[in-house]
Structure formats: structure tokens, C-alpha cells
Design brief:
Blueprint: H1 13-26, H2 39-46, H3 50-62, E1 66-69, E2 73-76, H4 82-102, H5 107-122
Antiparallel strand pairs: 1-2
């Protein structure tokens, strides 16, 4: 798994790391059951603090993208609770769509963007994934 951190970004490093791992799962670059590097190893590879990686792994665990195992370390284990996922997505979309409205982006333009972005992920063959 290749992780690239933009140290000039306004987005926190742990959020960038979380997002890249989620995108890696969605694009099947990393799959259910795959081990992620240890906190120390990933921190050394990227050149960031171990606590930052630990925070990202903790958030991904809380959000149901991975499990932490004492013997295996961080393992991709996507827990699917569709109702909670839809509720969380709705909450996140409210802010995104409010920004779109403030910038005079039409509903049709949003639909086109959603289709374009979703196509990047829906065409990927994922273990256990269905459309």
C-alpha cells in the first residue's frame, strides 16, 4: 500500500492517512483480511509520528474499517452496518451539499460528480462487494 502525505495540506495528517486507507479498500488495493504495516513501520516509512498513525488506526477501528489484533496487528475487516453507514453518510453529505448550494452548484452538477466519483469505486472488484 502506497501512502502519500501532503505535508502542506490544511487537512490533518491522520485524516489524510485514514482517507487513503479507505480509498485503498474501495479500490481493492487493500482487501478484507490484509494486514496493514505496524504503527512504527508505517510512521517510519512516511516520516511521521507514531502517535499520528496510532490515531488514524484507532479512528479506522472505531469506524469499522479494521480490527486491531495483538498477534496480527491492524487487519482490514470492514464491518457493514448499512443503516449506520447511511446515517453517517447523510450527515457528511449535508455539509458537502450545503457548501455546493453556497457556491451555486446545481443538483444536476452534483449528480454528475457523484456518478463520476462512484464510478471509480463501483467498477473495482471487491471481495464480498455487490452493486
Amino acid at each position: 500500500m502506497l501512502v502519500t502525505i501532503d505535508f502542506n495540506s490544511e487537512e490533518a495528517i491522520y485524516i489524510q492517512l485514514c482517507n487513503q486507507i479507505i480509498i485503498g479498500i474501495a479500490t481493492a488495493q487493500i482487501r478484507e483480511g490484509d494486514n496493514l504495516p505496524s504503527v512504527r513501520e508505517l510512521a517510519d516509512n512516511i516520516g511521521i509520528n507514531m502517535h499520528t498513525v496510532n490515531k488514524a488506526y484507532g479512528i479506522l477501528r472505531q469506524e469499522g474499517y479494521l480490527k486491531l489484533d495483538r498477534r496480527k496487528g491492524a487487519v482490514i475487516a470492514v464491518e457493514v452496518d448499512k443503516y449506520n453507514a447511511l446515517t453517517e453518510l447523510m450527515s457528511e453529505m449535508q455539509v458537502i451539499l450545503a457548501k455546493a448550494v453556497c457556491r451555486n452548484i446545481s443538483k444536476n452538477e452534483v449528480y454528475e460528480l457523484v456518478d463520476k466519483v462512484f464510478e471509480q469505486y463501483s467498477c473495482q472488484e471487491r471481495k464480498g462487494g455487490t452493486e
